From TrEMBL:
It is a multi-pass membrane protein. Residues 130-196 form the P-type ATPase N-terminal domain. GO terms for biological process: endocytic recycling; phospholipid translocation; post-Golgi vesicle-mediated transport. This is Phospholipid-transporting ATPase. It comes from Smittium culicis. It comes from the Eukaryota. It is found in: Membrane. GO terms for molecular function: ATP binding; ATP hydrolysis activity; ATPase-coupled intramembrane lipid transporter activity; magnesium ion binding. The keyword Cytoplasm does not apply.
Length: 939
């Protein structure tokens, strides 16, 4: 009997055979909110029936800025039992194999019951249903069309929107007022068209400029909407216009084709359903990103097989989050049989991205037109006013008040003059008494006579000056980047003047101050330090029977070769070569050289470093990876990947190693790894901690590597929790983070890595010049404190004679007391002079202390202290913390803020930049000059 067809149906929860639940009330409207382990299933389950549940996706790259506890993993809408309680109960199970058999059986019945249920609500409040190969069913749901317009105006809105924008300028309002009173007979001493005609000329010229610019937008929209795409309909591949693509259509795209809508990848020409995409139009990053279809759909490579897909996608509602997606593909028979396949960002292809290095792909459209993530994240352009325009408006308002006062005084003087001299002017037939109406008319007359106090050419002159300033920037050879052949480009002439108003600059470090080109330089293993090149004064030597100093990589290779696969050295590099999401590409088959496509430069540097030391990563498949260790091929089964995000600050891989054992390999920031060790008081851990500080003082980026072995029973129990989290449609990432938290514990520290990221050319000179101009520069980075300080010295943000105020407090009150004491010390004066030179102060604060400093009762103290310092460095901070810092300064200070970042993870904080300036993004490949030689793009 299908799930949900009988209101009185009894059901069981998978988690414990003793749990029973009355399935009351009508289940039809909430029959599916993501297949979970806790899904209700019919009573009549045969325990020897079995069906393998599809593996949860192993690639996740979206971020969440909250910490979630274990209690968040509950079944949506069905129960509130805590997973921790469930876990305790399952640990009492005597047979893991029997448990898995029962679990897979119940999952099968749960899916079958859902699939057979024909009364599922088409679209619930939190998700929507997208039918596969059923155009008529999707049409009945009335999804938006794929027609897109980015133009500012249309035929009906041009006049009202244009006039609203123009008359937001006080000068135009004043001249319109003057033109109106000039139309009153007996008031104007000049022609009726003296002001009106010039105003009409100015408005007409501006309108022509706006129409020309908007015509270009319309032409661009027309070109995009009439592009051709290939769509599978009724079992045939046909060509349609982009604007005619509908939700649920299965499209085929070829290499270098842009994606016409938001698409879920089904299959590709590459093995295992891989494809490469370029997202420079979305986040400014030109490095290729990897997407991978579900294994179950990767073999659907023909039109015939694709057209036999039967079922639907239960998808999240349209939103503007470019880096997150949650959905489930439900197959109702057909080529996939009965299955529920969780979908995540690793299958999502966004409109605006481009297919690269892949011959073709098939995908199903899940969002179209203005419901795509790109269009929803592109907010309508507001009517912007720069700081100069705002100041001009204030000055015009002030001048108008003066003009009005002059007019009133003049009208009053006229009244007095006529009162005293009317008898002498009787030949003019002027009455000695003036009515109130006549007095007001006289005021208006004098306003017209004095209207040149505000020149009508003011706004036109300003526009011309800004236009030519932009042209000067575009043609400035001092801002031409010879390496890339890229000139400076002023994308908005109105922003040029704002550069001179900037009071605060907030900058990310990686990819902004540095090149974001990572190289593996050093590592710490088993208490020893190994380096690519060793300073002669630091070479390893024996002192008092102990070896101190550093070994070079050649010595490291010899040590690895002489050790077995159980040694710390071997496991360290096995970890480096396997714990990642990198994709290898063979460059030269004869020499076995590989290039690695990595989602982060750090991962790429570690994999290349391992390869250089004999652990060559050669092959990735959806469920396995292969490495070549000094000529021996070793295969690892990939069981699960817990992806990195900014709140976790770590990633882990669960692998079945060649010896048959299951191991968890985890890498991340020292702050999160050390606290999850089984014993962090060991002497080896203390040695690694000291080495981390040494690496950081040299300006190197550091990561800690750890591992632990997992029993089959523990993994089987955890896998159920993970699968449940992976198939939840809403708040999936929260539940995945909580599931990862359960398994990432009691680890053993293997060592630490150190990666070099060089400074961009011209950074020290640029920062020194900006500091001399009185601009306050704050660096916001996720790196270790020592690394951040060293980079501060390298880029001349911190001078050698600076006094550093370092805040590493662990509690709210410690942070408050520390900041207050430092502020009082700076305020303290002796004989009217400060005891501290403000030009030689730098504030260094870590992420934990910053959390407290941003609280209501401390934020004013923190901000006052920070603004008194010449430089501020916030280290170990998340993207959310960066945004909160910028938001605090924006709220409390009047200066224009400039927020700079290099990639998508900095978008949140860049958007907090001053509203008139908005933000200037600084990419690895598009660097903005900040008035000097650092980069090339304004806008």
């Amino acid at each position: 009997m299908p799930l949900g067809k009988n209101n009185g149906q009894k059901a069981r929860l998978v988690q414990n055979d003793q749990y029973e639940l009355e399935n009351r009330n009508n289940q039809r409207g909430n029959a599916y909110s993501g297949i979970t382990i806790g899904q209700l299933v019919p009573e009549d389950i045969s325990e020897d029936e079995n069906l393998d549940f599809p593996e949860a996706s192993q690639n996740r790259n979206h971020e969440n800025n909250s910490d979630y506890g274990l209690e968040n993993i509950t079944e949506p809408g069905n129960r509130s039992d805590k997973i921790s309680n469930y876990q305790k109960k399952r640990l009492q199970e005597s047979s893991a194999t029997g448990y898995l058999t029962r679990a897979s059986t119940i999952i099968k019945k749960g899916i079958d019951g859902l699939i057979e249920n024909q009364n599922i609500s088409e679209n619930s409040g939190k998700t929507r249903m997208i039918h596969l190969n059923s155009q008529e069913s999707n049409k009945s749901l009335k999804y938006v069309s794929n027609y897109v317009t980015t133009a500012k105006y249309n035929f009906f809105t041009f006049i009202p929107k244009f006039l609203l924008e123009q008359f937001s300028k006080y000068a135009n309002v004043f001249f319109l007022f003057t033109s109106c009173i000039q139309q009153i007979p007996g008031v104007t001493p000049t022609s009726r068209y003296t002001t009106l005609f010039p105003l009409m000329v100015v408005l007409f010229a501006t309108a022509v400029k706006e129409m020309i610019e908007d015509y270009k937008r319309h032409s661009s929209d027309r070109e995009v909407n009439t592009s051709i795409a290939k769509v599978v309909r009724n079992g045939v591949l046909i060509s349609v216009l982009w604007k005619d693509i509908e939700v649920g259509d299965i499209v085929r795209l070829d290499n270098k084709d842009p994606f016409p809508a938001d698409i879920i990848l089904l299959s590709s020409s590459e093995p295992e359903g891989l494809c490469y995409i370029e997202t420079s139009n979305l986040d400014g990053e030109t490095n290729l990103k990897i997407k991978q279809s579900r294994t179950e759909t990767s073999n659907l490579i023909t039109v015939d097989s694709i057209s036999k897909l039967v079922g639907f996608i239960n998808s999240e509602l349209p939103n503007d989050n470019l880096y997150n997606y949650e959905g489930v593909l439900i197959s109702r028979g057909g080529v996939l049989g009965n299955a529920a396949l969780p979908l995540d960002p690793s299958q999502l292809l966004l409109r605006g991205a481009v297919l690269r290095n892949t011959d073709w792909i098939f995908g199903v459209v899940v969002s179209t037109g203005h419901e795509t993530k790109l269009m929803r994240s592109a907010s309508a352009a507001p009517i912007k006013q720069t700081t100069v325009e705002k100041m001009t408006n204030k000055q015009i308002a002030f001048l108008f008040i003066i003009l009005l006062i002059l007019a009133v005084f003049s009208a009053t003087g006229n009244y007095i003059f006529l009162k005293k001299n009317s008898s002498k002017l009787d030949y003019l037939y002027i009455s000695s008494s003036i009515s109130v109406v006549q007095f007001v008319k006289n005021i208006l007359t004098f306003i017209i006579l004095y209207n040149n106090l505000i020149p009508i050419s003011l706004m036109v002159t300003m526009e011309i000056v800004k236009f030519w300033q932009a042209q000067l920037i575009n043609s400035d050879l001092d801002m031409f980047d010879e390496k890339t052949g890229t000139p400076a480009l002023a994308r908005s002439s109105s922003l040029v003047e704002e550069l001179g108003q900037v009071g605060f600059i907030f900058s990310d470090k990686t990819g902004t101050l540095t090149c974001n080109i990572m190289e593996f330089k050093m590592c710490s293993i088993a208490g020893d330090v190994f380096a690519e090149t060793v300073d002669p004064s630091k070479k390893a030597k024996v002192v008092n029977g102990k070896t101190v100093g550093q070994f070079d990589f050649e010595a490291l290779v010899q040590k690895i070769k002489s050790s077995d696969d159980k040694s710390e050295l071997y496991q360290f590099f096995e970890h480096m070569a396997t714990c990642h999401t990198v994709i290898p590409e063979s460059v030269d088959h004869s020499t076995s050289k590989f290039e690695y496509q990595a989602s982060s430069p750090d991962e790429g540097a570690l994999v290349k470093g391992a390869a250089g030391l004999g652990f060559i990563f050669t092959t990735r498949k959806p469920k396995s990876i292969t490495i070549d260790v000094f000529g021996e091929l070793r295969n690892y089964e990939v069981l699960n990947i817990n992806e990195f995000n900014s709140s976790r600050k770590r990633m882990s891989a669960i692998l079945r190693c060649p010896d048959g054992k299951i191991r968890l390999y985890c890498k991340g920031a020292d702050t999160v790894i050390l606290e999850r060790l089984q014993d962090n008081t060991l002497e080896s851990v203390k040695k690694v901690t000291n080495h981390l500080e040494e690496f950081a003082t040299e300006g190197l980026r550091t990561l800690c590597l750890s591992m632990r072995e997992i029993s089959e029973r523990e993994y089987d129990e955890w896998k159920v929790i993970y699968q449940k989290a992976a198939t939840t449609v809403n708040n999936r990432q929260q539940q995945l983070d909580s599931a990862a938290e359960i398994i990432e514990r009691d680890m053993t520290l293997l060592g630490a890595t150190a990666i070099e990221d060089k400074l961009q050319d011209g950074v020290p000179k640029t920062i020194f010049t900006l500091a001399q101009a009185g601009i306050r520069i704050w660096v916001l980075t996720g790196d270790r404190q020592e690394t951040a300080i060293n980079i501060g010295y390298s880029c001349k943000l911190i001078q050698e004679d600076f006094s550093l105020i370092i805040c590493n407090s662990s509690t709210h009150w410690e942070t408050k007391d520390f900041l207050r004491q430092k502020l009082m010390a700076i305020r303290d004066t002796s004989n009217g002079t400060r005891t501290v030179d403000l030009n030689s102060l730098a504030l260094i604060i870590d992420g934990k202390s910053l959390d407290f400093a941003l609280e209501k009762d401390i934020e004013d103290i923190f901000l006052e202290l920070a603004t008194l310092c010449k430089a501020v460095i916030c280290c170990r901070v998340s993207p959310l913390q960066k945004a909160l810092v910028v938001k605090l300064v924006k709220r409390k200070r009047s200066e224009v803020l400039l927020a700079i970042g290099d990639g998508a993870n900095d978008k949140v904080y860049r958007q907090q930049g001053h509203q008139t300036l908005q933000f200037l993004s600084l990419s690895i490949y598009e660097n903005f000059c900040l008035f000097m030689d650092l980069g090339v793009t304004i806008g």
